[in-house]
Amino acid sequence: MSVHQDISKHSNEQHERVRLFAELDHKREQLIEDTLLKCKEDQPFEKELAEINQVTDQINELARKGIVPQRKNVTKEMVEEYCKRS
Q1: 70 CB contacts (<8 Å, ≥6 apart)?
Q2: In contact, 68 and 21? CB cutoff 8 Å
Q3: Range of 23's domain?
């Protein structure tokens, strides 16, 4: 392959990683909003918490490859504390 093709391939891979990150990050934020709503309504939210952290793990796997940031896993305590403050 030529240098130009190598650079194009690398650039396309990075672009795809950023696109996938944006998609997963949006999904994570939606799940967090759903979880906060359940917490505020005193409903169980363990299932939603597991989904958040599953998406977070996917984001962090992408981040290990470079160019996108990592995200923290969310704990039950974090959700409850946030609900108390808002």
Answers
A1: 59, 60, 63
A2: yes
A3: 3-85
Cα–chain-centroid distance for residue 23?
8
> Which helix or strand (DSSP H or E) is residue 50 part of?
helix 46-64
Q: Which two tokens stand for residue 6?
A: 């190598």
The helix/strand/coil state of 76 is helix
Phi, psi angles (nearest 5°) of residue 70: -85, 165
Q: State which amino acid sits at residue 76.
A: K
How much is the pTM?
Answer: 0.88
* Cα–Cα distance, 45 to 69 (Å, whole number): 26
What are the pLDDT digits (tens) for 23-67?
Answer: 999 999 999 999 999 999 999 999 999 999 999 999 999 999 999
Distance CA 9, CA 14 (A): 9
70 and 61 Cβ atoms separated by less than 8 Å: no
The domain tally of the chain equals 1
